[in-house]
């Protein structure tokens, strides 16, 4: 395939990347709203409900870096197109799910499609936009993420309440088909700066097994088997780093972390920030519907307040990171996130709707200040041939952080509520879990502000 004309591809790439950046968070946020209804139909307990979200994140986390490397070698457009097709097909199949196990398994398959999208969309965007224009492009892209998060709770709640939870998955099919068509027909040429390099299959397998052991082990704590799996995963991590340092074409270039402080600390900041923030919408969806007694549609209208603010301010934060050092805006964003999480830890059965909305809006503003400038810092700190790996690595930090956040949530639920369905008898234990979780996440983010400041200068 011919080399792409970056100037002509700017608009098509921005459209494709933006559409996909809308679709994946739309699915995540709308499914979170539908969880109580799904749980009711399949008689799922709190931990099993967590697996509807976790199976997707686990699969995406495992495959993101290896597929990002394959995209660098064989073509990002090709990988992206396959990914959006897989993501869309599984959305349709999930609407037909006949059991809890089928739904969770299909969510995992969809996670593979998500990994193919995450590892390529932003990398193509960075490939066609020069350094001085990247912040603006990334700001638009991140705004699409938050638009998806905004529409998800509202539309997901409306669909769930009036047409049932299966309609949520059907709703993702049409934008998926449009994105697939546009990526296949409108993008000209191919991006594959690492073409000809060998793929590190052994490293990819080691990476996948290691992450699976750690993530799954964490999710089944406090069982003893969970502890052993985590130890196995840590040992695998050490072996993986040693292997990647020795092979000529590693699936993950360890030197990017060793010799590039901006890349290393920006990724660490992303890991911490997403671990502290991702479970918020999951927990709040359950809180609003169980504790406050709201309908799915009513809960969605409240939850929409956070991503709307994110969508409004992300483009401005992205542009700001083209002018001043990203570490300044990201660190301010991290600090405000700590404040918001502390305020959420005071929620109880009598908290007012206004209080909830104001705190969620604060969280939205804080995350807008963090996300697109942090992405700009990561992607601007590497050479072009590493863009796919850098995008995949950042995506892995994001997903691993989300996985860590969900793992902590399921662990606290298991310890405080137990592996039972959430009923009025367990509401006091749910509220106790909520306070514990938001306190833990606030401590995480406080530590993350130091990682954010320590990254150094991009320019």
Summarize the topology.
Elements: H1 6-42, H2 46-74, H3 76-94, H4 100-128, H5 131-163, H6 166-171, H7 173-186, H8 201-219, H9 224-246, H10 255-258, H11 261-291, H12 296-303, H13 305-323, H14 326-344, H15 353-379, H16 387-416, H17 427-453
Helix pairs in contact: 1-2, 1-4, 1-5, 1-7, 1-11, 2-3, 2-4, 2-8, 2-16, 3-4, 3-7, 4-16, 5-12, 5-13, 5-15, 8-9, 11-12, 11-14, 11-15, 11-16, 11-17, 13-15, 14-15, 14-17, 16-17
Largest sheet report: none
- Write down the overall geometry: globular
What multimeric state do the chains show?
A: single chain
- The H/E string reads HHHHHHHHHHHHHHHHH
User: Based on DSSP secondary structure assignment, what is the total number of beta strands?
Assistant: 0
The CATH architecture of the largest domain comes to Up-down Bundle
**Helicity level, as a percent range?**
over 70%
CATH topology of the largest domain: Growth Hormone, Chain: A
Share of residues in strands: under 5%
What ranges have pLDDT less than 50 throughout 5 or more consecutive residues?
Answer: none
Protein structure class: mainly alpha
Number of domains: 2
CATH class of the largest domain: Mainly Alpha
Summed up, the helix count is 17
Radius of gyration: 21 Å
Mean pLDDT: 84
Report the span from N to C terminus: 34 Å
Tell me the CATH superfamily of the largest domain: MFS general substrate transporter like domains
Task: Please tell me about this protein's structure.
The protein is mainly alpha-helical. The protein folds into two domains: 6-199 and 249-453, Growth Hormone, Chain: A (Up-down Bundle); 200-248. It is 81% helix and 0% strand.
């Amino acid at each position: 395939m011919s080399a792409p004309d970056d100037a002509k591809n700017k608009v098509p790439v921005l459209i494709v990347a933006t559409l996909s950046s809308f679709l994946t968070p739309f699915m995540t946020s709308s499914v979170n709203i539908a969880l109580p209804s799904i749980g009711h139909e399949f008689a799922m307990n709190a931990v099993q409900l967590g697996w509807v979200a976790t199976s997707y994140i686990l699969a995406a986390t495992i495959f993101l870096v290896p597929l990002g490397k394959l995209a660098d070698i064989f073509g990002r457009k090709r990988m992206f197109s396959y990914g959006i097709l897989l993501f869309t097909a599984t959305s349709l199949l999930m609407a037909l799910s006949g059991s809890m196990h089928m739904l969770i398994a299909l969510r995992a398959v969809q996670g593979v499609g998500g990994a193919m999208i995450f590892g390529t969309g932003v990398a193509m965007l960075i490939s066609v936009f020069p350094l001085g224009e990247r912040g603006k492009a990334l700001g638009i892209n991140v705004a699409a993420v938050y638009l998806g998060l905004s529409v998800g709770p509202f539309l997901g709640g409306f669909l769930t309440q009036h047409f049932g939870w299966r309609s949520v998955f059907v709703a993702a099919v049409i934008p998926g088909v449009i994105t697939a068509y546009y990526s296949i027909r409108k993008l000209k040429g191919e991006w594959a700066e690492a073409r000809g390099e060998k793929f590190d299959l052994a490293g990819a397998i080691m990476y996948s097994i290691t992450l699976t052991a750690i993530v799954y082990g964490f999710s089944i704590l406090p069982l003893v088997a969970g502890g052993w799996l985590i130890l196995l995963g840590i040992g695998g991590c050490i072996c993986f780093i040693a292997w990647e340092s020795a092979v000529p074409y590693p699936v993950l270039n360890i030197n990017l972390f060793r010799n590039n402080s901006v890349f290393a600390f920006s990724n660490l900041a992303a890991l911490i920030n997403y671990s502290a923030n991702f479970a918020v919408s999951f927990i709040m969806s359950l809180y609003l519907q169980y504790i406050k007694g709201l309908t799915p549609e009513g809960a969605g209208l409240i939850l929409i307040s956070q991503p709307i603010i994110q969508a409004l301010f992300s483009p401005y934060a992205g542009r700001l990171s083209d002018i001043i050092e990203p570490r300044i805006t990201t660190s301010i964003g991290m600090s405000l996130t700590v404040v918001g999480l502390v305020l959420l830890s005071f929620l109880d059965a009598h908290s007012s709707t206004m209080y909830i909305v104001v705190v969620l809006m604060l969280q939205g503003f804080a995350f807008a200040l963090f996300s697109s400038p942090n992405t700009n810092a990561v992607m601007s700190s590497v050479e072009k041939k590493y863009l796919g790996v850098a995008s995949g690595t950042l995506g892995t930090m994001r997903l691993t952080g989300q996985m860590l956040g969900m793992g902590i949530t399921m662990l606290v639920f298991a310890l405080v509520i137990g592996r039972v369905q959430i009923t009025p008898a367990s509401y006091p234990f749910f509220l106790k879990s909520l306070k514990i979780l938001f306190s833990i996440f606030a401590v995480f983010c406080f530590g993350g502000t130091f990682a954010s400041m320590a990254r150094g200068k991009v320019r």
